Task: structure prediction
Amino acid sequence: MELTTGAGSVIKRVPDSPELSQPIQYLKGVGPKRGELFDKLGVKTVKDALYYFPYRYEDRGNIKKIARVSFGSYETVAGTVILAENITTPRRRMKLFELTVKDETGAVTGVWFNQPYMSKVFHNGDNVILYGLVKQDPYKHYRPVMENPEYEIIDEADEAIHAGRVVPIYKATAGFTCRQIRSIMKGVVNEFAQKLEEFLPGDMLRKYKIPTLPVAVKEAHFPENETDINLLNAKGTRAQKRLVFDEFLLLEMGLMSMKKGRAKALGRAMKGDGGLRKEFRKRLPFSLTQAQEKTIREISRDMERPVRMNRLIQGDVGCGKTVVALMAALQAAEAGAQAAIMAPTEILAEQHYLNVKKYLAPLGIKVALLTGSVKKKDRERTLKELSDGEAQLVVGTHSLIQEGVVFNDLGLVVVDEQHRFGVMQRAGLSGKGVNADVLVMTATPIPRTLALTVYGDLDISVIDSVPPGRTPVRTKLFDESGRLEVYRLLKSELQKGALAYVVYPLVEESEKSDLKAAREGAEKLAEIFGDYPVGLLHGRMKPDEKESVMEDFRSGKLKLLVATTVIEVGLDVPEATVMVIEHAERFGLSQLHQLRGRVGRGSRQSYCVLMAGMMADNSRARLQAMIKNSSGFDIAEEDLRLRGPGEFFGTKQSGLPEITYGDIIRDYKIIEAARNEASAIIEKDPGLQSETGRVLSRELKNKWIGRLDLVKVG
Ligand code: ADP
Ligand code: MG
Result:
């Protein structure tokens, strides 16, 4: 099978053995209906099923004598069925199935509600194991009872899988119980696990003392009975660690081969004579910080070399990334190439556009704007200017990557606020230029320790200081009872001539009601602060409406700007000194940090006010973190800790293969080992031509299939 990916190159998919790639529905005991249910769980083939691991385990192997069970605990008991009958309770007329099981110390009752067919499952004399929460039954002399217990009927010939051992718990779905899945999985693992092909070299297995792939997969589903349950639930057994290692090894290898492939990827040398840049510097009302200068040098060097640049700039909100990007754009222009800056929202693109135009038009640079809402006529003109090369710089949203946007000679692509875009989109835009250089800018710093893993395919520059003369923002937390105090603060700042933002959360699903809250908030503020004009900015406004509100705020015609989160990223109004965030508990940490970054841009003391109602501990921890930390790096680390890596990185969106088994925080040591091994492998056998190289290369391609055009190995 051949697949075409984003930028047009083709990678061959290497098939698994036919047995492993057969659709799961053809297996005995599955069928089309369950096949569909499996599909819902993301399992299509036998191999998918082998990799559908339990998300936790229960110890149902520690069998207690019935007389010894503790009420209120989950217990496992074993005994003989002495009674199995459907009954109707006399009082509430509920239909129950009751099972009485006896061992040599006593009896326990299992109760199932509204499941009369259970009477067909059990027979007197069956040997069974029950697992469940033990309660006391007031109607039966306070004897132990378990409601809907897990059960296993012991057949001499069969191995227990649902109780009487450590039991895997699978994520189930409507109409497909964990028990049913477990039964099928047992069969799949028994029959197919040994058909998985080992792809790690033997000396690696020995070095890390990890089991072979078939053993690891088998153990991860049905661990040996003595396995420590806590170790299992922390994915800490050797088998589990092996699977985590696999996942990260393939991730690291993929990232490294991308980086390597690109190092070789031909780029263009854009040297430029420095003329435009010099002129631009002269016009800046400030001098650049050391950190900006250093980053500009790194970019400039990359652009001069005939290799493709792929650089990430990490820099906290307000550190001045835009100027850095413009210096790069000017270098491209000096070399006769075009540049594109892609922003995550229309309003930000528009702001950038106006800003950039202000600086660059006097230098004779033609700047264009392209967003989804640029009118047809303007759009057509812009498209023409881009294709005939008249426009040297275009600022836009993801509209830039759409079909029909053709550049005369695109040399540089700048992606602002990277966390909103994925790797795929990045590739999409750079594909519009012949070997265009790529610069990615993010204000959501990845904790340094992890940046390598997540952005392993990029070179990184860090702008680690903000321009001088800024005063750290004072952050305060209030609940409703503090509202008057907040108004007082607003008033005193307004009297000093400052501007203020009031932000309301915008949850997409309930856009209307949130908009209502913002609108009402604006009305209320207008009432209270009669002398100070209040403006409202939200996502549903037309671009020119938005722009005119923004302009009125920037120029000081409006003093208070009430907004939904459209102002989250990038707005730059130095006179604003107060940021009030309503329902702060509903925002993520990095969002809050971004919002706070809108103030504190001048030399005046600025304030960030977090208004929060009732909240869970986790939200409180987030808001405390905001008060405690001012650096984006610290906040990012806190965020990672509080939210967990999945949500933090949004790997789904990033275009990287998803990390489904490992955990970027917990498995940090394994990641390091995987990274070292990956680089050793690629160093030694760059084309993955050796015998082990070839097997690895197959796994690599299957893992990264369809994701990236840049996998150049094997
Ligand atoms: P961000 O990195 O968050 O995108 P911006 O590029 O929007 O930050 O810059 C924030 C503000 O700081 C802007 O008003 C910009 O003009 C200003 N700025 C940038 N660099 C400097 C500097 N070296 N000295 C003073 N102000 C600067
Ligand atoms: Mg910015």
In short: The first helix runs from residue 18 to 21. The chain has four domains: 1-55+170-222, 57-165, 275-463, 474-629. Confidence is low (pLDDT under 50) at residues 1-13, 650-654, 708-714. Residues 321-322, 416, 570 surround magnesium ion (ligand 2) (CB under 6 Å).
